[in-house]
Amino acid sequence: MDAAAGTRGARARTGIAGLLLAGLIAATSLGSFGPPAGAAAMKGPDSVADTAANVMDAVVNISTSQTVAPSRSVPTPELPPGSPFEEFFEEFFKRRQQQQGEDNAPRRVSSLGSGFVIDQAGFIVTNNHVIADADEIYANFADGSKLKAELIGRDTKIDIALLKVTPEEGKPLKAVKFGNSDVLRVGDWVMAIGNPFGLGGTLTVGVISARNRDINSGPYDNFLQTDAAINRGNSGGPLFNMDGDVIGINTAIISPSGGSIGIGFAVPANTAVPIIAQLKEFGEARRGWIGVRIQQVTPEIAESLALGRPRGALVGAVTEDGPAAKGGLKAGDVVLSFDGKEVKDMRSLPIIVADTPVDKEVEVVVVRKGTEEKLKLVVGRLNEAEVAAATPEAPEAKPDAPKVETQKLLGLDLAELTPELRTRFKIKDELKGVVVMAVEPGSVAAERGIAPGNLIVEVNQEATATPKDIENRLEALKKDGRRSALLMVADPEGQIRFTALPVD
């Protein structure tokens, strides 16, 4: 190698070294070496072994058994005499019937789930679906002991069951306590312990993925969502926070494959605790009730009522002589808070009311005709057997019916209510308003479900008796700059609902 080549090589090496040094300085200044900013918040929690060891013995495997009826035998098919398959089928079904005769006795089937002890006296919480239809229920403990359990009470609405075992002499049970699920935030760490696929004492860790999930499993859906692995057999098991408090009861998963895909749901502790207390005291759930039918406040309804934004629950109808009626609540009121709790939307009001103790006097904040008012009412008890009657369809007008003078507004043909129209549409005597004779196809009114035979009872909380009343009210709304009109609509049976239609 000549001197020039050596010099060029030395310069190259020096340049490379300089670039590496510059890169090192740049990387260090950008934080590329060592953990990036916020990494401590991104990593998992410190070991949960101590917390798990403290609560593991309180988690039990729930095993059940039940007797099922034998399956029906398949009759031997009738074949034409001399058929080439006659002998084959006779032999086949003869063997089949002999086998079924042996298996025709009632069979015992078993299933597995999870649960947890909440009281050293032997009270255990699990899901109702874990023990549904069971003839025998056993709690299997971590130390290998097995105790027969008695069903104290169940609540199908939130899928909770309370069991009771009798602890063995000198062997007190380990119990866990409930925590406050309302303080949980999305991203908080949680751990689930249960009996997935029969593998008892299994612990998984994850975070709260979402709150207040409605999965259409019942009227009081308010689930915590977690990505902690929950599988079949985890049902009824506890979901713990990092302090070892139960903040949820694992109940359901979304799983196309049958295994965990990181979407599990737990009943929040604050939803379950009052129900468990009622099951313990009464053997049944006793929910609050006020006697209203409600509907969602849509953006159009919010605009028509000058609410600013969709919020609260709109009262569509009030049960006569019910707690709400006695407390002064009226159709058209928008409930903003109940017993000091904010009513964010329609779905939250039934949950709040159901969790309120029966016979408690509460304050209700409503918006009525643009003004906020405070009312007081005493919460009643929900009768679970109550079922709303189906609404009959309005009958078609008879071909020979006399012609009725109508006025077209809002995509509706409207007429003044007469005795003839009351009879034609079978409208109850106590109902008043303007009759809908026809609905323009494809109109907003048609999309909102308004039908012939309905009554327009109010427009923006002002009573209407004639189509002219509605026209005047619409003109006033236009002058006020309103884009929507809030209609109180009644069907012939008197079922009330509200809907907003554009005034133009």
Describe the structure.
With 504 residues, the protein is α+β, with helices and mostly antiparallel strands. Among the domains are: 181-282, Trypsin-like serine proteases (Thrombin, subunit H, Beta Barrel), CATH 2.40.10; 288-381, Roll (Pdz3 Domain), CATH 2.30.42.10; 407-502, Pdz3 Domain. The protein is built from 12 helices and 28 strands. The strands form 5 sheets. A 7-stranded antiparallel beta sheet has the order 5-4-1-2-3-7-6. β25 and β26 (462-463) form a beta hairpin. It is found in: Periplasm. Keywords: Hydrolase, Periplasm, Protease, Repeat, Serine protease, Signal, Stress response. Belongs to the peptidase S1C family. Residues 279-370, 410-492 form the PDZ domain.
Summarize it.
The protein is an alpha+beta fold and 504 residues long. The protein has helices at 3-29, 39-42, 49-55, 86-103, 128-131, 269-282, 299-304, 323-326, 348-355, 419-424, 444-447, 467-479, and strands spanning 59-68, 107-119, 123-126, 136-140, 146-148, 150-155, 160-164, 189-194, 202-213, 223-226, 238-240, 246-253, 264-268, 288-289, 292-296, 313-318, 334-338, 341-342, 361-368, 371-378, 380-381, 407-409, 412-416, 434-439, 455-459, 462-463, 484-490, 496-502. The strands form five sheets. The protein has a seven-stranded antiparallel sheet with strand order 5-4-1-2-3-7-6. Strands 22, 23, 24, 25, 26, 27 and 28 form a seven-stranded antiparallel sheet that branches.
